[in-house]
Known about the structure:
- The chain starts with a strand and ends in a 6-residue tail after the last helix.
- The protein has helices at 18-47, 53-60, 66-93, 97-115, 124-138, 142-151, 155-182, 205-223, 260-292, 296-328, 330-347, 403-432, 438-466, 468-488, 496-499, and strands spanning 2-3, 14-15, 191-193, 198-200, 358-359, 388-389.
- It is an all-alpha fold.
- Helix 4 packs antiparallel against helix 8.
- Strand 3 and strand 4 (198-200) form a beta hairpin.
- The strands form three sheets. It has a two-stranded antiparallel ribbon.
- Helix content is 64%, strand content 3%.
Amino acid sequence: MALVESEDENTPLLSGDADSIEDAGRSRWKSIRVMYFTMFLSSVGFTIVITSIWPYLQKIDDTADASFLGWVVAAYSLGQMVASPLFGLWSNHRPRREPLVCSIVINISANIYYSYVDLPHSHKKYHMLLARAFVGFGAGNVAVVRSYVAGATSLKERTSAMANMSACQALGFILGPALQAALSFIGEEGFFVKILQLKFNLYTAPALLAACFGVINILLVITILREHRVDDYGKQIGAINYVSEEQVAVAPEVEGNIDQIAVLTSNILFFIILFIFAVFETISTPLSMDMFAWTRKEAVLYNGIILAAIGFESIIVFLVVKIISVRIGDRPVLWGGLVIIFIGFFILLPWGNHYPKIQWANLQNSSMPTVGLGDNPLSNSTVEPTGCPFEQIWCQYTPAIHLAQYITSDILIGVGYPACNVMSYTLYSKILGPKPQGVYMGWLTASGSGARTLGPVFVSHVYTILGPRWAFSLICSIVLAAIVLLTAMYKRLIAFSVRCGRIEE
């Protein structure tokens, strides 16, 4: 018997004619595409404000420093880390529509909350922290999305489907900063919507736009998404929109036979991959403001353009990865991606005898050095001071990072990260085999979220106290450790069906 689409969610999708099989196939791919769109919006929700968080934080609360920025960026991932296993477990026992709709509603509410963080009279930075944590909690549905796509595709389809999903994630990564850059024309002051008590400016507009995207996402999930599940060969094995995934029959010989060491290794590698990219995206705005003396508005605009360009680059990488992985396999692509990331961060190390412009703030001392100050911004209090803050002692003895270094590093990381990202969770889904993957995908997402939590905190503290040389040297060491781990565990990171001898690699 074959599966067909049913309008009644509680009716098993069973029929015996060939047309129904074709309808079921169309329904399956429509549902997968809804998951692509959900992943796209999750990415947009994170990146649409990432380049403006630091200047917005400085604007609303002058007690916030670069270390607190790390916590604000990390709050998103901390919320996602907590939510991912919960939503994954929920999706194993109930229709995936339920956790998806719930998570998107939370995400919409949190983005609206973010738009109002300037309204309270005090503790504004903590309101921003909470808002980003709730946005991240709503983004915990990524575990449900990955679980759905893994369960609804055959082993042959999976790499391509995962690459497509990553391409949608990259498209969100592009449009997020691009939309932020496009909305920068509104300006820092913008205008006040009295009836809503809302300040509509370049910082709040992107969050409100993300909330609108969430409404569209809910409508698509409710009207189009249907439950589908296939085996490694692509044969439909059951509809779970009316029964728990745990009740889906699994062959006795595959029960409890997952290689847990391979699972643990995959989680560690995914953690490292997300950790180093979280470091990169967190530090880009403060680093560019310190090294290139950009203003807050310039940093938002220029970094938005750079990140959007990296996103376009990532889509090309995903398309190439789909072809290369078929010829040489998933593991060599993952290994090569890590090597490229290592080179990218190594290039970012500061060299030479050119030093950044120092921002002396409000110090008015004739004995203070004047080299590199240029036009003194202190003569006009309305001019925003730029350069590397004098409180960061390393600014006075650490060579500046050149714009060419920064852009070259961006290009290399923009190649290595997407290749590693898609290969890591493609391999993971293959290692898990035919068992329901909701909880396992929840742990993988939690692992990545933990990395996104620790990465910003790590780099904001190390960068503020010790400077870019120490920060990027430590990152290079971490990437090198990942390459060694992958090399050591190379032979164990294979698909479940390959390990069991049912399919040849």
